[in-house]
Design a protein that fits this description.
Layout: E1 2-7, E2 10-15, E3 23-30, H1 34-45, E4 50-53, H2 79-94, H3 98-112, E5 116-118, E6 121-129, E7 132-140, E8 143-154, H4 160-165, E9 169-170, E10 183-189, E11 195-201, H5 210-223, E12 235-239, E13 250-251, H6 259-264, E14 271-277, H7 291-299, E15 305-312, E16 324-326, H8 335-338, H9 344-364, H10 373-383, E17 394-397, E18 402-404, H11 411-418, H12 424-433, H13 438-444, H14 450-462, H15 469-477, H16 494-504, H17 511-519, H18 547-566, H19 571-581, H20 586-591, H21 599-616
Parallel strand pairs: 3-4, 3-8, 4-5, 8-16
Antiparallel strand pairs: 1-2, 1-6, 6-7, 7-8, 9-13, 10-11, 10-12, 14-15, 15-17, 17-18
């Protein structure tokens, strides 16, 4: 048998004799947070012997310790619904915030079903026999503790246990390795005496570096007290002790859910639950995201389109490892899907699914991969965690627009939509149609209706046709500041879309234009950068952030990099341009007046680092 453990950030391995396990359980859940708490409850409700361990002094994760009690998408269903209702009732009766009530109710349920909890306890290693997990080493109450198990559920949210067991992991986006910005939660008292909270985007941090994480937490809480974020009507009570990390390590699973799968609406025969949300990426530096995401988010202006994502046990199973399931935001998916498949409701259903699977495996004495799907499905359907209604396809689903999205194929309908202020569905439909719609789009490039011309150019560029480039350059030359209005937030300026697409097309003819934008000292003096001053949820929620300037400069920088990668003859001049443009912090300071360490500062700093790294390459 092998004992695999982490030491100074590295995985070590030693051969050991049969461990003297102090106890053996059917299911051991490592991490009793958003997913893990439901895994413990679900597994024990099915009659399994269960031990839940957590390094923190309380359970429930962001929904309790993090004080984020509300939900952003995900769909109600499963065991969490009754828990939430009971928490709300207890809160009203005993003058508790529902996050405290929820923690109490879940602890009572765990005890009722006969499961055990060990808090302030850390997993120090995993025992492996061949490719199968046999147990774990723990550190609890100042001493080591060995526990055997049939199934280990890694609900740590950071794949710590999966890594110890031998799972490969990945983290962050391809362009610069950055994960989504984290949040600081401020809890305050309203003028009416009720408790509320602010979930504040707080910058980018490597949570696996203890010094960087500590500095990030202090800077995040401090930034909430800056004058720009003050509100005298809110009496601050405290900052939540558990910060909101949105993304970390992701396991290499038997099945990886990709953005291509989500956009194509790929069905799954053995779905355990459906995730449901938009690509809620939070960061403003869209230019550093993948082409697939930018085509939807930037070019088609569909940032708030919601997608249903079927999740199977294969996406929760670390590749090549038996006796182990992942439950939480570290299941098998790519960086883009990680921004969608992380909502609390979905993660609670993920934990419930893992708990049911593990309990059924124990009941039959088999690996979780051998449990008949029908048995799991019937239990999840009975609890409401899996329903046909959860498969909603693609929708606008908010107070601004609530309707199913049907991709378009009639040229007459597409023409009408492209000339409107809400052309997003038509633009993305053209991407899906590809070359078949191109003749119509090319014909519309010369139409007298400017809105149609520009809409057709954007759509044509998404099909990869360079014939769109001259019209795109025209939009950029004009610094067209019109923004589309498809969504309730994150709407895109037309000139920004054009800059992105010139880079996507690797249009060498646009190099002088983009270079001037980045280096001309008179650029920032243009009136368009100073017209939009008041915060607007449709565009920008912070008055200390120049959204239009940031988006144009960031996309121009990344577009030049893409052009250089395709046109070697321009590489030297483009590196010279980027080196000059980002030699100092001028673009950061023109974007925001907020200090280093804030989300606003870090957003442009990410672009600067990306550009300078390219120059050094």
């Amino acid at each position: 048998m092998r004992h695999r453990y982490m030491e100074e950030g590295l995985i070590r391995e030693v051969e050991v004799e049969q461990p003297a396990f102090a106890q053996h359980v059917d299911v051991l859940v490592a991490g009793v947070g958003t997913a893990g708490a439901l895994a413990v409850i679900a597994a024990s409700a099915q009659g399994a012997s269960v031990l839940g361990i957590d390094r923190l002094p309380g359970i429930g994760g962001m929904g309790t310790m993090g004080y984020v009690s509300g939900y952003y998408y995900g769909l109600p269903g499963g065991l969490h619904v009754d828990i939430d209702e009971a928490a709300g009732k207890m809160g009203r009766e005993h003058f508790l915030d529902r996050v405290e009530a929820k923690k109490t109710i879940m602890e009572d349920l765990i005890t009722k079903h006969g499961a055990s909890l060990a808090l302030n306890t850390v997993v120090t290693g995993v025992f492996m026999e061949g490719d199968t997990v046999k147990g774990v080493s723990l550190w609890s109450e100042g001493k080591p503790w060995l526990v055997g198990c049939q199934t280990l559920i890694d609900a740590t949210a950071d794949a710590v246990v999966s890594m110890m067991a031998g799972s490969a992991t990945r983290s962050g986006r391809e362009s610069d390795g950055r994960t989504m910005p984290f949040t600081s939660v401020k809890v305050w008292l309203t003028a009416h005496g009720s408790i509320s909270r602010t979930n504040h985007d707080s910058g980018y941090v490597n949570q696996y570096d203890p010094f960087e994480l500590s500095r990030g937490i202090m800077q995040a809480h401090a930034s909430q007290q800056l004058a720009v974020f003050e509100d005298v009507s809110k009496r601050v009570l405290f900052f939540a002790p558990f910060i909101g990390i949105r993304e970390g390590r992701i396991i290499e699973a038997e099945q990886m859910i990709t953005i291509q799968d989500v956009l194509a609406g790929r069905p799954e025969a053995e779905t355990l639950f459906y995730g449901y949300a938009d690509f809620d990426k939070h960061g403003k530096d869209h230019a550093l995201e993948s082409i697939e995401l930018q085509d939807l988010y930037v070019a088609a202006n569909l940032s708030t389109a919601c997608f249903s994502v079927p999740v199977t046990r294969r996406a929760m199973t670390p590749k090549g490892i038996k006796g182990l399931l992942a439950a939480g935001r570290h299941i098998g998916m790519d960086h883009e899907v990680a921004s969608l498949l992380r909502m609390q409701r979905d993660m609670q259903k993920c934990g419930e699914s893992a708990g049911v699977l593990a309990a059924l495996a124990a009941r039959s004495g088999v690996d979780v991969g051998q449990v008949p799907y029908e048995e799991v499905r019937d239990i999840l359907r009975a609890s409401g965690a899996l329903t046909d209604e959860h498969n909603r396809g693609v929708m606008f689903d908010d107070s601004f627009r609530r309707e199913t999205i049907e991709w378009m194929n009639d040229p007459a309908d597409i023409r009408e939509a492209l000339a409107s202020e809400m052309p997003g569905v038509a633009i993305y439909s053209c991407k899906l149609l590809g070359r078949s719609i191109a003749p119509h789009l090319i014909a519309w490039l010369t139409d007298r209706d400017v809105e149609l011309r520009y809409g057709a150019a954007i759509a044509l560029a998404l099909t990869g046709d360079p014939a769109a480039a001259p019209v795109l350059r025209e939009m950029v030359e004009r610094r067209d500041a019109l923004y589309f209005k498809d969504c309730r937030r994150t709407n895109q300026f037309r000139s920004v879309i054009a800059v992105y697409l010139l880079g996507r097309l690797a249009d060498a003819a646009s190099v002088p234009l983009l270079s001037r934008m980045l280096t001309d000292e008179e650029e920032y003096g243009r009136p368009l950068y100073h017209v939009i001053k008041e915060p607007s949820y449709k565009l920008n929620t912070c008055k200390e952030f120049n959204e239009l300037y940031f988006q144009l400069m960031s996309h121009a920088a990344v577009a030049l990099v893409r052009i250089a990668e395709r046109h070697a003859e321009h590489e030297a001049s483009i590196k010279s341009t980027l080196g000059e443009a980002f030699a100092d912090e001028r673009h950061i300071r023109r974007t925001t007046s907020l200090p280093e360490g804030t989300f606003e500062y870090d957003t442009m700093a990410n672009i600067r680092h990306f550009a300078l790294n390219f120059c050094r390459g």
